[in-house]
């Protein structure tokens, strides 16, 4: 999906950073083709450790497997406490996943350029309700009900890097009860 909105992230294929001293490839939900391309591009990153959700075997390096994204992110947090200068993280997967990785990196003072992001797989969105501040996960439609305040939200194409989410605003604020037909846009 393309947008003229400049807040919308743009992604480039992952490439190994020759200045890195420790490299982690963190992935969840990426297509097999994108994962293979990323592993090939990162093959020059030594040593490379792969952190992956699911049982997909890696040819790129030592692999840590996790049952779900929550488990991977929970394991990544204490590992980042012990990270050394020169750490590089390459994240591949859905936007909510890769931006969760970016947020963790920032929390542990990794520079933005030390955490490379590439989108692959599902287009589902994390939507932030501007009314009650709830983060709604896995949104696939342009209109979605907020899990917090139950308002019908219009999912804007505005992306907040700080919140790692798209903005959701009440769709019928001016004309209560007048809702557009939801469309599946983010599968």
CATH topology of the largest domain: Rossmann fold
Query: Uncertain regions: pLDDT < 50 for 5+ in a row?
Result: none
Percent helix, as a range, is 10-25%
Overall shape: it is: elongated
CATH architecture of the largest domain: 3-Layer(aba) Sandwich
Strand element count: 10
Keywords: 2Fe-2S, Flavoprotein, Iron, Iron-sulfur, Metal-binding, Oxidoreductase
Domain Dimethylamine monooxygenase subunit DmmA-like N-terminal: 6-111
Domain Dimethylamine monooxygenase subunit DmmA-like C-terminal: 126-169
InterPro entries: DmmA-like_C, DmmA-like_N
Characterization of this structure:
Keywords: 2Fe-2S, Flavoprotein, Iron, Iron-sulfur, Metal-binding, Oxidoreductase. InterPro entries: DmmA-like_C (IPR048037), DmmA-like_N (IPR054582). GO terms for molecular function: 2 iron, 2 sulfur cluster binding; metal ion binding; oxidoreductase activity. Pfam families: DmmA-like_C, DmmA-like_N. The protein is of the alpha/beta class. The protein is elongated, with a radius of gyration of 18 Å. 19% of the residues lie in helices and 31% in strands. The protein has a 5-stranded parallel beta sheet with strand order 3-2-1-4-5, with helices on both faces. A 5-stranded mixed beta sheet has the order 7-6-10-9-8.
Give short descriptive properties of this protein.
alpha/beta; oxidoreductase; 10 strands; 3 helices; 5-stranded parallel beta sheet; 187 residues; Rossmann fold
